Structures are given as structure tokens and as C-alpha cells.
Amino acid sequence: MDIKLKLKKFDGAIIAVVLFTFGFYNTCESENNLSKNKKMTLGKVTDFKYRLEGGYIRYEFYANGELHKTSDPDDSGWPDYIRDVRAKKGKFYKVEYDSNNPKNSKIIIDKNSKSHTELLNKGIKKNGIIEKVYAISENYFDLYIKYHFDKNDIKFRTRLHRDSLNCKTVKACKGSNIEMIISPEFPRLNNLYHKSYDRIKRIEAKNRK
User: Fold this and answer.
1) Which of 29, 87, 174, 190 would disulfide-bridge 182, Cβ 3.0–4.6 Å?
2) Burial class (CB in 10 A: 0-12, 13-18, 19+), 73
3) pLDDT tens-place string over residues 50-105
4) pTM metric for this prediction
């Protein structure tokens, strides 16, 4: 075998060993930091894919007043991940995270998931501001609402019947306050988003299939 080819293969093996050692060290360091600085919160599963290789569970959670979006492996391989059941999109699960580095986190997929209804039943009242409003029909308004919680400005759209509103005209609604229920554990979650007429109808149609 050519001496240059031998050296090239040897260099490749050395690089592979160095990368493996570096990755192993970083993983161990992350695990130690997570154990020392662990805090718990709730995270929402936004997507997942189960497969033999490269499966993932994407989720988001709030820590230190900020929204963090990340992902975990779909299986329970090393380092240990709790995967007692299959994840469900839109459900909330416990998340453990490093208080000094929230990007270092794990989501716990078990039977103790929470629905948005369960979280809102323990929610708090919050006032939002109707920034924009459009009359979709004689009875329904599309409202674009903004509210602030902790460090977050959160915006969303909802479609509500005008009889459910304190304001009865587009002009009266624009710039006015509106009361809602939000979850302190996941501030983006609010009752008015889920009360949107079009979203409710889509869910009903899906359930009839």
C-alpha cells in the first residue's frame, strides 16, 4: 500500500478518535451540569418523527423568561431519556433543564402529559390589547391581540362572535383591552386562541372523519 494512503487513513482514524472523545466529554459535561443545576418546567411537543435512525421529538418551553425551541432523540438511549409512551403533538410534558444554560434540557415523555385545557384551568387572568380588528361577517370579528408576560410580547389571532365581546363595532374594538386566561407555565397558551371559531370548526371536522 502506498505510504501516503497509509498516512491518510491513519490521520483519518486519529481525527475520528479525537471527535468521539470530544463529543463524549461534552455529553458527560452537559449531563453533570444538568444534574447540578436542574430545574423543572413544562414543554410543548411541536413535532416528532419515530424511526430506526435519526428520530426526534421537537419541543419548546419557557425558562428564565424566554422561549426555547429544541429537540431530543425519540428513543431512550444514552444518555438516559424517559420515553414511556409515544409523544403526542400539542401535549405538554415535564422538561428538566440546566438553569445556567436552558439549551441543555430533556423532555420527559410519560403518561403524565397535560392538555391545554388542564393548564388553562389553573391559569391567571391577563389583559391584552386588540391591535387590529376585521369584520369577517355580520357576527364574527378577526382580532389581532398582543399581550406581555415576563420578558415576552406575544401576538395571536382569534375569531370571536361579537356578542362575546365588550366592544360591538370594529371602531370600538380597535385599541381596546380584552381579558383572557393564560398559563404562567407556558405564557403563549391562552384561552382566546383556542376559542377561535374557525379553529373549533376545523377540529370538529377532523373529529368527524
Assistant:
1) 190
2) middle
3) 999 999 999 999 999 899 999 999 999 878 899 999 999 999 999 999 999 999 99
4) 0.83
Give me the count of residues in the chain. Answer: 209
Q: Do 102 and 68 contact (CB within 8 A), yes or no?
A: yes
Cell numbers representing residue 176 in the block: 381596546
- Judge contact between 197 and 165, C-beta under 8 A: no
Grid cell at residue 117? 385545557
